[in-house]
Amino acid sequence: MGLENVKHVVLVLSGKGGVGKSSVTLQLALSLSQQGHNVGILDIDLTGPSIPRLLNLEDKKVRQAPGGWLPVPVHSAIDPGQASAPSGSPSNGASQSSARGSLHALSLAFLLPSRDSAVIWRGPKKTAMIRQFVSDVLWPPNTEYLLIDTPPGTSDEHIAIVEELHKLATAMPTIQNGQPHLNISTPAPSLAGAVVVTTPQAISTSDVRKELNFCVKTQVSVLGVIENMSGYMCPCCGEISNIFSKGGGEIMAQECGVPYLGSVPIDTTFGELVEGVKQAQRTAVDSENSIPVAATELVERYKDCGLCKIFNEYTSKLVSQIGS
């Protein structure tokens, strides 16, 4: 079993494409990591993987190890005693003594020869690849949360991942010395549930309702609905303007009887962070000897983003809900 080091699995779903599932997945992962949790991201959007691009790691490749694949490291964990901010980097009011969890990612894009390579596969091959992702990826020990970024809709990928996770959640007996034996030494990861992403427009919520129905039929609990692209956050003053409709996701969650986590505005500074526009500008310089040091990692630069506080609140709700 490839998920023996994973404690909780969270699906990120949406019935509509282009609503920002991948960016929500990444920001949930960054916020969980900032709160001290070890996190993994599994990108099963096989025909349109976005996570490597968002992480600016498109040139990385998956390494083979005895027993399976090793996910690509994004950043390492930092113990409380080592969590002082790099010289010259802003702390944004955060405590510099808090722990930081690690982040690793795996995507089919890490296995392709180039970012422009097309994946033209039929359903059975997609299902086989997802099963391999579940069984053959060696996530680091003590990975507390595995976020699975899914494609839009309710297709082969969704059915395959839910079936595999339900199988793992059911302890299956093995045969030892000709007798059935229940192996409980390695606990199976729990499918904590799904975070469902929508935009406020009715055309989006109508498709996302189908995703909620999918969760009911496949026995996946809905941890919460996030209404993405709800308003526009001014990069200068932080004021949020509702340039499109607002509240459609909240109304849908109320009508369907599922939790509503909240809304996320459009913030252009997040796009600049993931595209690396500001990375060169944030190269820290040691004040004593003026030796340039490495630019701060995405998890640290994300603290300057206006969405950081919003997602920290949402991840705190999820952690509390999953733990309860």
Structure description:
The chain has helices at residues 21-34, 51-54, 123-136, 156-169, 202-217, 248-256, 268-275, 298-301, 308-323; strands at residues 6-13, 39-43, 63-65, 68-70, 72-75, 103-107, 143-149, 173-176, 179-182, 190-198, 222-233, 240-241, 260-267. With 324 residues, the chain is an alpha/beta fold. The protein has one domain: P-loop containing nucleotide triphosphate hydrolases (Rossmann fold, 3-Layer(aba) Sandwich). The strands form three sheets. Strands 1, 2, 5, 6, 7, 10, 11, 12 and 13 form a nine-stranded mixed beta sheet that branches. A two-stranded antiparallel ribbon has the order 3-4. Strands 8-9 form a two-stranded antiparallel sheet. β8 and β9 (179-182) form a beta hairpin. The chain is globular, with a radius of gyration of 20 Å.
Strand content: 15-25%
Helix content: 25-40%
Question: What is the CATH architecture assignment?
Answer: 3-Layer(aba) Sandwich
CATH class: Alpha Beta
Query: If helices are DSSP runs of H or I spanning 4 or more residues, what is the number of helices?
Result: 9
What is the averaged pLDDT score?
85
> How far apart, in Å, are the first and last alpha carbons?
26 Å
Region (Disordered): 73-98
GO molecular function, one term: 4 iron, 4 sulfur cluster binding
Subcellular location: Cytoplasm
Binding site for ATP: 15-22
